[in-house]
Amino acid sequence: MRMRNKPWATQELDICSFFVRNPEQHIGKWHDFFKRKQPIYLELGCGKGLFIAGLAPKNPQINYMGIDLKDAVLGPAKRNIEAAFKTENKEPDNVVLMAQDIERILDIMNSSDKVKRIYINFCNPWPRPKHHKRRLTYPRQLQNYKQLLTEDGEIHFKTDDDLLFADTLEYLKDSGFEVISKTYDLHADGYDESILTEHEKMFMEKGIKIKALIAKQVKNG
User: What residue ranges define each of the domains in the chain, with the CATH number in brackets?
Assistant: First the structure.
């Protein structure tokens, strides 16, 4: 889906207290960036921010980081997060948004920036085989995430795409992860943290079943 340009987005982001324009300046120091030192949950491809907006205000004991590529996406994310915190009469002091190519995540985070959880929600399935390496769950990406996850850290993955889900199960196995939970119909099986994203609502309205899994690193894997 092509994202329309939003001329206001860059200006709003540049004065937003929880948006970081140059995240590479904080590599190795993200735990010090937040007001409180506590576990970090990282969403890759946060889109319009509805997922983080649904979680962060209700979980002040967790710090949330959201990454996407363009201001046109992150501008609405900023507004959605602000609105969610305003509803709770709180300030967004446990959230950071940033623009970054996720394939180059190690340019902005390293092994000192340990995160307890990585969320990957409805990423581009890149169905053509020659494009599979661009998937956010492709093995070379998983190797990057292993550098960022705590020893007991988890990857939480959701998708509407059957082939991507099947391939991701294999990618995880081959990359030293153990799938500890999976479902081929998330909303029939129930899930404690099923915050609906924009894409998830769209797929559900079309009757498409949501696939989901949770994976952990295999020790010494």
Answer: 7-217 (3.40.50.150)
